[in-house]
Amino acid sequence: MTGGCLPCELERAAPGAVVFRDELWAAEVAPGYEVPGWFFLRVRRHAELLTGLDDAALGRRARDLVAAVTQATGAPATYLLHFGENYRHFHALVAARGADIPPGRRGGNILGLRPGHVDVAAAIALVPSVRASYERTAPA
User: What pLDDT does 140 receive?
Assistant: First the structure.
């Protein structure tokens, strides 16, 4: 499915935006969410919401991606957020939170940083480090 489904459209993401892709899951820098240290973790088939998943090892992919982002960025916190309202195709935002983020913008409030912190070049530049950390972290 495409036609307005951003997670489906990520199948066509430029290679430089891709952290990993396997048969079931992928992680990329998503258009409009190019905040350095932010990645979409998504199921590759169009499955809606968390309830649309089968036993597809979400926990392992989420754990490994969060670990890789934390290692590559040195962030004191890395969040895994899922809402499913804007894009029903299951995806989660993995978002590194730097030490410079004020307390009022931590937790779910981190999403308010998006408008002023989008930096496409810096977000893409971070991908090779996260990819290398993911490859070291994730089991073969």
Answer: 62
Fill in the amino acid letter for 117.
H
Nearest to 64 by CA among 23, 1, 20: 20
Between the alpha carbon of residue 84 and those of residues 49, 67, 81, 98, the distances in Å are: 6, 23, 10, 25
Judge whether residue 111 has pLDDT over 90.
no
Q: What is the pTM of this model?
A: 0.89
Q: At what angle do helices 120-137 and 58-73 cross, to 10 degrees?
A: 120
For residue 3, what pLDDT band results from cuts at 50, 70 and 90? low
Average pLDDT, the chain: 88
Nearest to 73 by CA among 53, 49, 99: 99
